[in-house]
Amino acid sequence: MPAIAAQGLTRTFGPVTALSQLSVEMPHGVVGLVGANGAGKSTLIKILLGLLPPTSGTATILGMNCLTEGLKIREIVGYMPESECLPPDVSATEFIVHMARMSGLPTDVARERTADTLRHVGLYEERYRPIGGYSTGMRQRVKLAQTLVHDPKLVLLDEPTNGLDPAGRDDMLDLIRRVSTDFGISVVVTSHLLGELERIADHVVSIEAGVLQHSTSTAAATELSGLVLVEVTDRGAEVVERLRALGAKVTTGTQPNSFAVEVADGRILDDVRGVVVDLNVGLVRMQRGRHHLSEMFLTPQEAVHG
User: Fold this and answer.
1) Are residues 234 and 110 in the same domain?
2) pLDDT digits over 172-182, tens only?
3) Helical H segments across the chain, by residue range
4) What is the rounded CA–CA span in Å between residue 173 and residue 16?
5) Quick one: which of 180, 230, 255, 277 has the most CB atoms within 10 Å?
6) Is residue 297 part of a domain?
7) Does residue 32 lie within any of the structural domains?
8) How many structural domains does the chain have?
9) pLDDT at 285
10) d(CA 201, CA 176)
């Protein structure tokens, strides 16, 4: 059973269609949900949480109907909103305990879970400070903690790296990955940064204007390409000319000593080595290329021209 399934999901707001006949299945693990502002991501999340009824179609999360079982869903699903929504005048401990009790945990259990969760997100030493004095990265960790404190089966994280510097992004991505690998919690994370999703997501779903564009495993989307990336120390143009004379298909770019060679068979690698030796130039690298998630969003013309 998939973690999330939608069938013909449509939601309109007057003349505006936020979701249009969306049919998709999201597996367990870490799923990246990609889309520009206004693509329908937030509308989808609200429907999945049972906070917004669809105009038509159905959606289930962990096998529960999002239209009729919203309360039960919110008992076992965590949600980290994108917006700045934390009270500045209470400590992280007070806030997380409150959220745990709101989720139905007894007070003593809520306090124990709060301490464990704040330790997991790296805020244990700062847990009694008012949230208003926290940095952006610390506030994001508080939001993640309230998402996890009631021990959910699945979490929905809306742009969790927003406003973070590169080091903060790395830390947050590591935390998200550990949520899945260490605790077995399924994760749906929205982001407009495809490089982030390549690092942590097992599966990627992209929507645009409420319409499904792609749904694929990250492994399939980033598999090895049919190209070898070559860089030499000098005389790049001569190396390329020799390879083309041998029948190789070579694509050059803006760097004079770097180029890509299409791999038709294993012989082409021997040809590259042979030409480099004949011209007495240094071989800096020769490696198989990989596809990137960003290639899913290229037009046919962009794909041809790189």
Assistant:
1) no
2) 999 999 999 99
3) 41-48, 70-76, 92-102, 107-120, 136-148, 166-181, 194-200, 218-221, 236-245, 267-279, 300-305
4) 34
5) 230
6) no
7) yes
8) 2
9) 86
10) 10
**pTM over 0.70, yes/no:** yes
pLDDT reported for residue 292:
64
Give per-residue burial for 139-149: e unless 16+ CB within 10 Å, then b: bbbbbbbbbbb
Cβ contacts of 94 within 8 Å, gap of 6 or more: none
305 located within any domain: no
* Domain span including residue 281: 224-290
pLDDT for residue 86: 94
Shared domain check, 260 and 187: no
Q: Are 229 and 58 in contact (CB under 8 A)?
A: no
For residues 101 and 114, membership in a common domain is answered with yes
- Which of residues 214 and 61 earns the better pLDDT score? 61
For position 305, what pLDDT does the model report? 39
Beta-carbon contacts of 226 under 8 Å, excluding residues fewer than 6 positions away, are 262, 263
For the record, the structure tokens of 296 come out as: 């899913």
Q: Is residue 36 domain-shared with residue 154, that is, in the same domain?
A: yes
Place of tokens 């991501």: 41
Same domain for 228 and 211?
no
248-266: b or e for each residue (b if 16 or more CB lie within 10 Å)? bebeeeeeebebbbebeee
